[in-house]
Amino acid sequence: MVKHVILWTLKDEFSEEEKLGIKQGIKEGLEGLKGKVPGIVDIKVNINGLASSNADLMLDSTFENEDALKAYAVHPNHVAVADSKVRPYTKIRSCLDYEI
């Protein structure tokens, strides 16, 4: 199996209230991909980081294998969520993929 972990930082231009709504939209959009994108074993988005965090939210996902992760990256449902709910609002993206 393969873990796919992403940390995002939202753009500074958003108020704290706007950021809450953006984070909820990202969470709902990405978690909603389970069962729609083949190869996803588990997918969770944490939007409740502690004040000591230097990122706003985290994707913690597990895929059957590396090929499933590659297919997820270009799957139309994933691309639609990324283009509408993630990319317009984030300024920093850090990713770590690894085998478990």
UniProtKB/TrEMBL annotation:
InterPro entries assigned to the protein according to its UniProt record, in alphabetical order: Dabb, Dimeric_a/b-barrel
Domain Stress-response A/B barrel: 2-98
Protein origin, superkingdom: Bacteria
Xref: PROSITE patterns: S_R_A_B_BARREL
Pfam families to which the protein is assigned, alphabetical: Dabb
Name assigned to this protein: Stress responsive A/B Barrel Domain
Organism encoding this protein: Butyrivibrio hungatei
